[in-house]
Amino acid sequence: MFKLSEIKELIKLLDQTSSVHELEIESEGMKLAIRKPDRSEADGMAIQATPYAYPFTPAPQPQSQQYAAPAVVTEIPAASQQPVSTEGTLHKIVSPMVGTFYSAASPETPSFVNVGDRVSEKSTVCIIEAMKLMNELEAEVRGEIVSVLAENGQLVEYGQPLFLVKPE
Fold first, then answer.
1. Using CB atoms within 10 A of its CB, is residue 121 exposed (0-12), middle (13-18) or buried (19+)?
2. Among 93, 94, 151, 153, which residue carries the largest CB count within 10 Å?
3. What is each CA distance from 85 to 117, 127, 146, in whole angstroms?
4. Is 48 exposed, middle or buried (0-12, 13-18, 19+ CB in 10 A)?
5. 125, 162 contact by CB (below 8 A)
6. Residue 21 pLDDT
7. What is the pLDDT of residue 80?
8. What pLDDT, on a 0 to 100 scale, did the predictor assign at position 150?
9. Which residues contact 72 (CB under 8 A, 6 or more apart)?
């Protein structure tokens, strides 16, 4: 996955050169394409990043940002991707953002939920850390945790299933 600092540096370098107008890089399952805008386009760079497994919707950027062009991402089917069987009755709790999954508030405390635990709509099931902010994720459904699909400390993508819940 590309770090934001790396992307900003690439944009700066591309902006400073007059001979290169487009750059494409593939690394660790991601494809990043940056191109200079035509004169008819708004100020900024056009950026395209393509993940292989999960779609990604970028967070809105402030208008004051120097390179405020939106990122466009499309899904590419992964040959080794195995779909999770939900048997039609299980509810998926998915990650609302890209970040690091934590099953507990700290390493010394027990997990928020385990397989077999009952949850309500307001039960905290995990924390997603994004940009040094800890975001508590609630179950949003009443039921029983059937499966935990992410590991503690794992990087998760937007829309990635984290838990399967059997609704009541």
1. exposed
2. 93
3. 20, 24, 12
4. middle
5. yes
6. 75
7. 38
8. 93
9. 46, 47, 48
User: Which residue has tokens 């794992």?
Assistant: 154
Distance CA 47, CA 24 (A): 10
Q: Would you state the structure tokens that stand for residue 49, as one six-digit string?
A: 């990043």
pTM: 0.48
Residues forming a β-bridge with 166 = 144
Longest Cα pair distance anywhere in the chain, in angstroms?
61
CA dihedral 158, 26, 70, 3 (to 10 degrees): 70
Run means of pLDDT, 10 residues per run, the chain, 168 residues: 73 74 74 69 49 52 50 46 56 93 92 94 93 90 94 92 93
Residue 107: CB atoms within 10 A of its CB come to 8
Are the C-beta atoms of residues 104 and 112 closer than 8 Å to each other? yes
- For every residue of 54-113, DSSP letters joined together read S---PPPPPTTSSS-PPEE------TTPPPPP-TTTPEEEE-SSSEEEESSSSTTSPPS-
